[in-house]
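Justification of resources, computational component.

The compute hours requested in this renewal are based largely on the per-chain cost of generating structure records like the one below. Each record pairs the submitted sequence with a full structure-token output. That output is archived, and it is also reused by downstream analysis tasks.
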Amino acid sequence: MLKLYDYPQCPFGQKTRIVLAEKQLDYELTVVDLRKHEQLEPWFVALNPFHKVPVLVDEDDEDHRTVVYDSTVIDEYLEDEYPEPALLPPPGDSAARARVRQLEDYADMAFVLAAGNLLTEHVKPEGERDPEKLRRAKDEVDRTFALLERELAGGKEYLAGSFSIADAAFAPRLLLLVARGVALPEGARALRGYVDRLRQRESVRRLDGL
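The structure output for this chain reads:
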């Protein structure tokens, strides 16, 4: 049985929930309320010493229990344990697999934080915004938009051709930006089509607020 410890608005947890949905895996969800600092409770720290969501517990019985934390590690674990449908290119294509992993890492390390900062400043009244923080966040988000437009060039539906863990990583914050009125670049036809396809994907539609 799979158990997921998560907070609904966490983009990293959303990434993992997309992967679980793509693989049509049932799981029991336990909400860890970050607003109440439940991630600091001893019972949760016992699962993840870094006190961050998500955490996945995969247990067949009391004697076989695997605890996995960090959304990237969780998604790779799910790919290994439940390989169909595949969300990485085939094992023989090392270059393509590496590219997907690099894109997922870019989403996690560069895009998610910048998108969050942009959204935070974007919703404030104009007089309360931090102009420098807003500028830095917008610059990073614009770089991501340009990267995605390049990666999707040539008519690709998704970043690896077919849907992958890289798409699962970008989708939550990308769609939230669009939903909150952050404009996509003029002429970014590939990116606009990509956003439309993500919106229609059942695994993404299950997420709240997108």
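Helices lie at 11-22, 42-45, 71-81, 94-122, 131-151, 165-179, 189-200, 202-205. Residues 18 and 72 are 12 Å apart (CA to CA).
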